[in-house]
Amino acid sequence: MVTGVTGFVGSHVAKALLERGYRVRGTLRDLEKAAWLVNNVFKDYADTGRFELCYVRVIAAVDAYDEAIQGVSVVAHVASILTMDPDSTKVIPATVAGATSILNASMKEPSVKSFVYTSSLGAATMLAPVAAEKALWKFAGEQRPHFTISSVGPSVIIGEALNKAHNEGDGAWIRTLYDGNTAFWDSMPAIYAVDVKDVAVIHAAALLDPEVTNARLHAWGHKCNANDLLVVMRQHFPEREFIDDLAYQTVLHISADFSEPLALLKKWADQDGWRSLEDSVVENVNSIINLA
Ligand SMILES: NC(=O)c1ccc[n+]([C@@H]2O[C@H](COP(=O)([O-])OP(=O)(O)OC[C@H]3O[C@@H](n4cnc5c(N)ncnc54)[C@H](OP(=O)(O)O)[C@@H]3O)[C@@H](O)[C@H]2O)c1
């Protein structure tokens, strides 16, 4: 089961599992928004019953997932409220309730063997507590579930979008640079960037690999900044005029232990290291052009 299957990350997590021969149940709150999945991107899987959708109206409701969880063996909880509403009371309690509600549903379903929660780099680096991942580990410590729990903490995620909507809005990082919109980059002069396909493989591995238990998997990829990304864009898309380099770009000096996520990329995708920044940027821009 993959929550947030209509999203940028959720659709790639579903794809990684389908490509490895698993059946996927995607949960969503708006069936119309998912038409592209069953009519296009996952049509063959949907037509053969290997990909199905399940409507979950309010993820924070106590019994929200009780029906969707039936018969499920692994759970990827990718959906999250991403409104960036400055009023934290409209975001944090519902996000924590969403995580708790799906964990409680998993506790009631004996078939569940593993659970992965999509967190973020921020949960490992910000001084302010990131409530939903804290709730996850509190649950793991107190409830002693019959399934393994892991979290994947991505940095800025870039790469091929499977749907046009994923290249729109403030969270479409490469699209903002492609359009010359620097609002995000002015406030973020150095980042780590990771390919969405790496993030998806690490989710799949955390769900399927019996050796992964209670892991915090930092999926950060490459240190870079807006100017590094612009270099790749200019080189591969010379027909388009991009903005000039931004001032005050720098390099991050934080790091984490990436040995386990990198070993999982090797084991589950036969890949040495993170996908290259160049490939990620080129695939992202190609998806902007091809899905326009
Ligand atoms: N993108 C990044 O750079 C990045 C970096 C670090 C971590 N993450 C994490 O990755 C996860 C997925 O992000 P994304 O980039 O894939 O974002 P996205 O494309 O906006 O997808 C978000 C998904 O969550 C669903 N969702 C949002 N609010 C919901 C609600 N109230 N009830 C039910 N479903 C809801 C959306 O459903 P609808 O389609 O119905 O809106 C969508 O399926 C999030 O947990 C995010 O924090 C992302």
TrEMBL record:
Domain 3-beta hydroxysteroid dehydrogenase/isomerase, chain residue ranges per copy: 1-124
Keywords: Oxidoreductase
Matching InterPro entries: 3Beta_OHSteriod_DH/Estase, NAD(P)-bd_dom_sf, NAD(P)_dehydrat-like
GO MF entries: oxidoreductase activity, acting on the CH-OH group of donors, NAD or NADP as acceptor
Pfam families according to UniProt: 3Beta_HSD
Annotated transmembrane regions: none
Keyword GTP-binding found: no
One of the protein's GO biological processes: steroid biosynthetic process
Recorded superkingdom: Eukaryota
Similarity annotation: Belongs to the NAD(P)-dependent epimerase/dehydratase family. Dihydroflavonol-4-reductase subfamily.
Protein name in UniProt: 3-beta hydroxysteroid dehydrogenase/isomerase domain-containing protein
Organism: Trichoderma gamsii
